[in-house]
Design brief:
With about 210 residues, this protein is of the alpha/beta class. The chain has five helices and ten strands, in the order E-E-E-H-E-E-E-H-E-H-E-H-E-E-H. It has a five-stranded mixed beta barrel with strand order 3-4-7-8-10. Strand 1 and strand 2 form a beta hairpin. Helix 1 packs across helix 2 and helix 2 packs parallel to helix 3. The radius of gyration is 19 Å and the shape is globular.
């Protein structure tokens, strides 16, 4: 579901492909509902080892992150810090991961490339960027850690399934049409750079 509340565009899980049709690269969105941390080893287990992911992420969201967790009593946990990790490390897995799990929203740090573009376009998903350096802010937006799976992987790689409220801001970097904000901006910035170099070169002869 998508709704506008207090000027914010909020995605609430479960999310359908239809919900994402009017979400475009560069949009700022917030997430409410189910969010599961999932990074390198978990991706490898699903894609390379063919293991079934023990948290249902279909029509939900994952976060490329290795959080810091405080254990509480009765097998409960508290989120201390949850900064996103570099999404590009998961790029080689992401097409097959999205195809297999049905995840709808991928959150991380930095851009991704062709595998993720293709997954988003074919399966109706998006990739979003959470601003770096805000790990404690992100932790505050986690209302509860609902469950923890694949604990044998250690704290950073465990699947921490969380309930979040207005988690964000999230900048849409790849939309469900497969457009890639980072790659498009690279072309734009390169063009601007070349124009400026040409302009300066006319005035300063030693610049090539």
């Amino acid at each position: 579901m998508v709704e506008i509340r207090d000027g914010k565009k909020i995605l609430t899980t479960p999310i359908s492909a239809e919900d994402l049709k009017d979400i475009h690269i560069g949009d700022i969105v917030y997430l409410t509902g189910s969010l599961t941390t999932c990074r390198d080893v978990a991706h490898r287990r699903v894609v390379e080892e063919g293991r079934e992911i023990p948290v249902n992420v279909r029509n939900n969201a994952i976060l490329h992150a290795g959080p810091i967790i405080r254990p509480l009593v009765d097998d409960r946990f508290e989120m201390v810090s949850v900064g996103p990790t570099t999404s590009m490390r998961m790029e080689k897995f992401e097409y097959d991961f999205v195809k297999t799990t049905g995840v709808r929203v991928i959150v991380g740090k930095g851009g991704m490339k062709g595998n993720t573009e293709r997954a988003c376009k074919e399966f109706g998903a998006i990739h979003c960027v959470f601003p770096a350096g805000n790990a404690v802010v992100a932790a505050v937006e986690v209302e509860e850690i609902v469950r923890a799976e694949w604990r044998d992987l250690g704290m950073p790689e465990t699947l921490w399934n969380c309930r979040v409220k207005e988690f964000g801001p999230l900048i849409v970097s790849i939309d469900s049409k497969g457009r890639n904000y980072f790659e498009e901006k690279k072309v734009e910035y390169e063009q601007r750079k070349n124009e400026q170099v040409e302009l300066i070169s006319k005035q300063v002869g030693f610049i090539k």
